[in-house]
Amino acid sequence: MKARVHVTLKPGILDPQGKAIQHALGALGFGAVDKVRQGKVIDLEIAETDPEAARASLTEMCEKLLANTVIENYSIELDGGPEGPTPS
Amino acid sequence: MKAAVVVFPGSNCDRDVQVALRQSMPGAAGNGGPVMVWHKDADFEKVDLIVLPGGFSYGDYLRCGAMAAHSPAMTEVVRRAKSGVPVLGICNGFQMLTETGLLPGALLRNAKLKFVCRDVHIRVETSQSLFTGRYRAGTALRVPVAHHDGNYVAAADELDRLEERGQIAFRYCEADGAITEAANPNGAARNIAGVFNETKTVLGLMPHPERLADPALGGIDGRPLFDGLVEALS
After folding, report:
1. Considering B20, B84, B165, B190, which has the largest number of Cβ atoms within 10 A of its Cβ?
2. Domains in chain B, number
3. Is the pLDDT of residue A88 over 50?
4. B39 has catalytic annotation
5. CA gap B51, B107 in Å, rounded
6. Does the complex come out with an ipTM higher than 0.90?
7. Neighbouring residues of B219: CB distance < 8 A, sequence distance ≥ 6
8. Is B66 an interface residue toward A (CB < 8 Å)?
9. What pLDDT, on the 0 to 100 scale, is given for residue B72?
10. Who among B63, B66, B109 is closest to A17 (CB)?
């Protein structure tokens, strides 16, 4: 089963890289960009057929390693279908 | 007193901190001083102090310190830290300590996005700890920083708690000790350069005291940290 994990900075955590991208876009003429936040996408292939078990396992992976929940939120997509962000 | 320095693939200050500690340990020259523990070794000897050195463990992959936080040696370090064994984390070692949750908060990319490598001043916020007993509170030290991700963040209420409990060890300051925005090299919240855990047995800091602990290196402001630790733990 394929999965995709999105890791993003929590609202309120300053994202200097996002800010720099926004400035660069402004310099390129994209003045309408009000805000940029940069995150990570992690693609995984898991030997698991049960979506619920896969989701449980991915949640544990996010909590333990893939995201630092002090500063980051994560969301999990299974087989390409987004199933909404995981609250954290 | 026995000390161990944990060495990860990508550590680059492990020898420096070993030398800095050794010169503060009487008689250590004979036995080689602090032992070096490879990151895969979860079964190292009993020691009075564990040091997590600076560097770029595991190439800073995913997040600085994230991979190191789960290595076999670190699992053991976390266990021992929880039982009260003192742990000192410098730079990348500080990042590992926040990643394991032994210290609160996290270290983000520097606010100006630049790698900062220069001497800074930090103010000793308390002398009431194993690590800072040889300093007087309020003293400004000159020590180098060398990092890309030293921008300390924590929730506002967490920062308040740290202040209330006296868990802030060092703050970036001017040469005269004044806490200013200009003296903050990386955007760290409230100019925080180093924090303790609640019991003050774990210290993480971004600056490198081991790099100015010998007159030959141009300064000795870092030395009292090691002298004080050895004195307190011997």
Report:
1. B20
2. 1
3. no
4. no
5. 19
6. no
7. B119, B142, B143, B212
8. yes
9. 96
10. B109
**B21 is in which domain, residue-wise?**
3-233
User: What are the tens digits of pLDDT across the range B135-172?
Assistant: 999 999 999 999 999 999 999 999 999 999 999 999 99
Closest-CA distance of chain B to residue A46, Å = 19
- Residue written as token pair 């009487």: B26
pLDDT tier at A14 (50, 70, 90 boundaries)?
A: confident
Active site includes B208? yes
Q: Show the low-confidence residues of chain B (pLDDT under 70).
A: 28-30
pLDDT in tens, B63-83: 999 999 999 999 999 999 999
Among B13, B64, B91, B173, the active-site one is B91
Angle between helices B92-100 and B72-82 (to 10 degrees): 70
Q: In whole angstroms, give the CA distance from residue A69 to residue A55.
A: 17
Tokens of A48: 């698991």
Whether the full predicted model's pTM is greater than 0.90, yes or no, is yes
Alpha-carbon distance A2 to B138, whole Å? 55
Domains delineated in chain A: 2-80 (3.30.1280.10)
Which among B78, B148, B153, B157 is the top mutation candidate for probing chain A, defined by the most A β-carbons within 10 Å of its own β-carbon? B153
In A, which residues are within 8 Å of B98 by CB distance?
70
User: What confidence score (pLDDT) does residue B30 get?
Assistant: 64
Q: Minimal CA–CA distance to A65: which of B99, B95, B40? A: B99
Smallest CA–CA distance, residue B65 to chain A, in Å, is: 11
Burial A50-63 (b: 16+ CB within 10 A, else e): eeeebbebbbebbe
